[in-house]
Write a structure and sequence with these properties.
By secondary structure, this protein is of the alpha/beta class. The chain is 25% helix and 27% strand.
Length: 269
């Protein structure tokens, strides 16, 4: 049985100062923060925040126009891609899902992230290692680091992240880390730094947008002779229309976004 606390209550019902997802249809999905006296408005109508407070997640609501909608608890994906400020190119969910699996993350693990950008990948890494783990992010641009921390603070994940403004090729402070995600344009310049930061056997994933970068990095990994045989993956996402009697692929798909190179640290051969 759950304890009768406000924290537990807000897991099931809409509370003030919490984010909710207003779902009207697939094209109209809005993440808002609930505040008394404010109003949610869309091209399909409006509803006052006061009328949402106390509703169970999953409840149907009626907008001012009579259009039906639903109030849902937002997923991490909803939060990150709808309320984060994103001045940089970000990783797609299809790539992040495989990254989390391949890095084998869980609570308590310590992760290196090189190239924080807007903090999108950082958020997923932090959620995976919380509440006892930590993400150590290195970002060369101060404005990106500030944006990332501001984004993470919106959803309470900043407590699991430490971001340092530094060129990671100059070295990192941490040792014996459990995993690493490297999203840099020049990853061949940091393989030695990453190697020294990881514990033996730890996995690392490099994200690269072009095949030219992939070839150059693979050559460096082979030259290092300190990694298992790298695995190269590209993911393509094809979504389907699910209307009754009209099941078919959508005309637009998310094709190339980048390449993932996965390998693990081994002791010198």
């Amino acid at each position: 049985m759950k304890n009768d606390t406000s924290t537990d209550l807000c897991e099931d019902v809409v509370c003030e100062e919490r984010h909710v997802l207003i779902y009207i249809d697939e094209r109209r999905r809005y993440v808002i923060k609930i505040r008394r006296g404010e109003r949610f408005s869309s091209d399909k109508g409006y509803i006052d925040h006061d009328d949402l407070i106390g509703l169970s997640y999953g409840s149907q609501i009626t907008l001012s126009s009579g259009v039906k909608a639903y109030v849902l608890k937002p997923s991490l994906e909803d939060l990150v891609y709808k309320i984060f400020r994103r001045p940089t190119q970000v990783l797609y969910p299809k790539d992040l899902g495989l990254i989390l699996v391949m890095l084998d993350l869980s609570s308590g693990k310590r992760v290196l992230e090189a190239g924080v950008g807007s903090g999108v990948a950082t958020a997923f890494l932090a959620r995976a290692v919380a509440p006892n783990g930590r993400v150590y992010g290195y970002e060369i641009r101060e404005d990106f680091a500030e944006t990332a921390l501001n984004n993470l603070s919106k959803i309470g994940l900043d407590r699991y992240v430490e971001i340092k403004i530094r060129d990671v090729s100059k070295g990192v402070d941490e040792k014996d880390l459990d995993a690493a995600l490297i999203d840099l344009s020049n990853p061949w310049d940091v393989t030695e730094v990453v190697y020294e930061a990881l514990r033996p056997g730890a996995p690392v994933i490099f994200f690269l947008p072009t095949i030219n970068q992939v070839e150059k990095l693979l050559n460096k990994l082979y030259l290092d002779n300190k990694w298992i045989l790298p695995k190269l993956v590209e993911l393509l996402e094809r979504e389907y229309e699910t209307k009754t009697g009209a099941l078919r692929p959508k005309t637009v798909m998310i094709s190339h976004t980048g390449y993932l190179i996965y390998t693990r640290k081994i002791l010198n051969r």
